[in-house]
Design brief:
This protein is 2% helix and 50% strand. The chain is an all-beta fold and 222 residues long. It has 2 domains: 131 residues, Jelly Rolls (Sandwich), CATH 2.60.120; 67 residues, Jelly Rolls (Sandwich), CATH 2.60.120.10. A hairpin with a 2-residue loop joins β14 and β15.
């Protein structure tokens, strides 16, 4: 399922399968892809690499460590790892986990791969990356630097019967369901989002979100 409207795109998990984008997002957002990655086993990780785009990991669950630009950080639920283009990074998980990825549009050579220094040559850094620990990630980003295009990147838990009141969006706003389901009303159109579904909403649209049975969602604001 993919619903395309000038003010919103809604994509089901089954239709959201291309990591590097290629038509997976509208042209009014900086995001190329926004995806949920289901539970991975303890001990999983990725090798040191870099990209021709900015990449963000938002961990919904699990514990481990991430290395960004040569510095190592603990990973706990709700931790955000922002790796700008040209920043070498890796992660190693110590428990089962699931996470969400956000990738911006490709630049430079536009290579849709993990770029390895020993194979493809050294990276050309842009700006330093950053990590926000899960316990501290409870609102807008305090210091996102000169390149990060996102003002907020976090998981939000909604108790049954709660949600977000109707309002007109001042910035682009994007939602991905980690667990449970939510009812989204956008410019009068109502739809249910379930695990892995994504809604990308344009600034100026009017939206309301409710979680009748409770839910955990990933919120990204530009």
């Amino acid at each position: 399922m993919k619903i395309k409207n000038p003010n919103y795109w809604i994509t089901s998990r089954n239709s959201n399968t291309v990591y590097w984008g290629e038509g997976a997002s509208p042209d009014w957002t900086v995001i190329n892809s926004f995806m949920w990655h289901p539970a991975g086993g303890s001990g999983l990780g990725v090798e040191p690499h870099y990209h021709d785009a900015d990449e963000v990991w938002i961990f919904a669950s699990g514990n481990g460590e991430a290395s960004v630009g040569g510095k190592t950080y603990d990973v706990t639920p709700n931790t955000v790892v922002y790796t700008p283009m040209g920043t070498v990074h890796r992660f190693q998980m110590l428990t089962e986990f699931d996470n969400v990825s956000v990738v911006t549009r490709l630049e430079r050579q536009k290579r849709p791969i993990h770029i390895l220094e020993e194979v493809d040559g050294p990276p050309v850094p842009t700006v330093p990356g950053f990590v926000i620990q899960g316990a501290d990630n409870n609102g807008p980003i305090a210091d996102r630097g000169p390149r990060c295009p996102f003002t907020e990147l976090r998981n939000v838990d909604y108790d049954p019967g709660t949600g977000v009141r109707e309002s007109t969006l001042p910035v682009n706003e994007h939602w991905l369901v980690d667990n449970g389901s939510v009812i989204l009303t956008i410019d009068g159109f109502e739809t249910e989002l379930v695990q892995g579904d994504v809604a990308m909403l344009r600034a100026g649209a009017t939206r309301q979100l409710s979680a009748p049975d409770g839910a955990k969602v990933c919120l990204v604001r530009e």
